[in-house]
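Internal tracking record. Fields below are filled automatically when a chain is submitted to the structure queue. Please do not edit lines marked as system-generated. If the sequence contains nonstandard residues, flag them in the REMARKS field before resubmitting.
Queue: standard
Priority: normal
Entity type: single polypeptide chain
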Amino acid sequence: MSKFIVDSNFFIQAHRAIYPIDVVHSFWLKVKKLADSGTIISIDKVKLEIFDNSAHEDELKDWCQNNLSDSFFYNTDSVLQNYIAIVNWASSSNYTDRAKQEFLETDLADPWLVAYAMSTGDTIVTYEKSEPNIKRRIKIPEVCKGFNVRNVNTIEMLRELNESF
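SYSTEM-GENERATED OUTPUT FOLLOWS
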């Protein structure tokens, strides 16, 4: 069975706007169950965005530290060639120079998520929505289209897994 690779906004948006940890415990129990079973995974760059970014609440960091094992966050060193292909794609795209620069920041998880999914065939889970006519920001769904990588949102993933909470 293919896995689902979750973006940092899977956690951040859920906690901030949709399923706050202190209110919707059942969502977070479901996330832990899916993580423990290996159904959902993430990458080292997502861990950096959650743990090392002071803009994120301590409650989310604490939850991740207490409920996700180190093995949940896969190392991306092995997908460098795919990352280079994404860099070349972004560099030759019609996005603004600023959009390209922001997208290709070394520790930004987005291109690395796609690079990892290219190597595994897994599906990316993100709250980002396709906006192909917007050129001021490169979004995960556009990169996924460019590299034939599947992406879904959280609800679509839960439906595919026949999960509820």
